Amino acid sequence: MKLGEPYTIAYETISSADNVFIRMETDKGIIGYGCAAPDLQVTGETSDTVLQACKDIIIPRLTGLDPLRMALHMERLKKLLPGHGSALAMVDMAFYDILGKVAGLPVYKVLGGFRQYIKTSITIGILPAAETVKKALEFIKAGFKSLKIKGGSDVEEDIEKIIKVREQVEKSIELRFDANQGYTVEDSLHFVESTRAARVELLEQPTPRGKLTQLGQVTQGVSIPVMADESLMNLVDAFRLARRKLVDMVNIKLMKVGGIAEAVHINSVARAANLEVMVGCMDEAALGIAAGLHFALARPNVMYADLDGHLDLIDDPSKGAVILKNGTLYPRQEPGLGFTPRRGGP
């Protein structure tokens, strides 16, 4: 799927997104849908590796099995598909979609149903300061109340952009900043101190994903919450970050961690460590966003959502799987994930 408008982050420019859809049909005629949004830089996958995993492992291993024993099937698939987070997430989604349809409930209610909607941020890629301000004002006019601004390539330019955006937007608008691993510890401290007056809400993944000591140094050295994104890929990472008190928050993306079931486990570790949680996303179809939304709605310590990866996709076959009103996301109330394929879809 092409993006309506390409965007740039610290290490690449994105103009399109490959998603892989799966359709799982039971002998009772119940159909579950899932999708994968592989990303070579983040999940280590491509659409080709996901399709190969389907052909070699997923389809042969799941055909003829009871879909309501999803814990058993996912445990076996995890052992066979290490490092295939989005492929696992795709299957996990389809299982939950079937479970919800069997139960006659939307997935967020099956999971606990803590809330019924959540505000989402919307992302502004790396742009010159004037264009960043222009884009921010456009999004606010469209009803969004939380902006996530990307940076990490040039700390001085990032500082300038944040200050200029804050000068032009109301105090009630939340500003979040994502350096996408582009900063040193010194850059991070300088950025936070220099933007203090702009009231940045949080700093996401300032340092390289494998440099956990640096991440902890930033967390200890700044006055705003620091969030791990690329440094959190699985349950072990969550435990490591929590045990060493390296961050204040974590960004759980279903495509990174392998689906809703694994996200629930990671969220429990975060809650035990008193870490707040954001549910994030890749450039993924509305079906993937729906799965993330249903998870976010089900857990009380999921305080933030960054579920905007579907908004600029052209010809998304699952368009309409979530409902967006004035920057707030609502789930569909049909059983499962609420996705019904439109003509020409999966």
Give keywords.
346 residues, alpha/beta, 15 strands, globular
Shape: globular
Give the uncertain stretches in residue-range form: none
Helical percent range? 25-40%
Mean pLDDT: 96
List the secondary-structure elements in sequence, H or E: EEEEHHHHEEHEHEHEHEHEHHEHEEE
Strand content: 15-25%
Oligomer: single chain
Class of secondary structure makeup: alpha/beta
- Termini separation comes to 14 Å
Radius of gyration (CA) equals: 19 Å
Main sheet: strand order: 6-7-8-9-10-11-12-13
Largest sheet: 8 strands, parallel
The number of E-state strands comes to 15
Q: Give the number of helices.
A: 12
Please describe what this structure looks like.
The protein is built from twelve helices and 15 strands. It has helices at about 45-60, 70-80, 85-105, 105-110, 130-140, 155-170, 185-195, 210-220, 235-245, 255, 260-270, 285-300; strands at about 1-10, 10-15, 20-25, 30-35, 120, 120-125, 145-150, 175-180, 200-205, 225-230, 250-255, 275-280, 300-305, 320-325, 330. Strand 8 (about 175-180), helix 7 and strand 9 form a beta-alpha-beta unit. Helix 2 (about 70-80) packs antiparallel against helix 3 and helix 5 (about 130-140) runs parallel beside helix 6. The model has no long low-confidence stretch (mean pLDDT about 95).
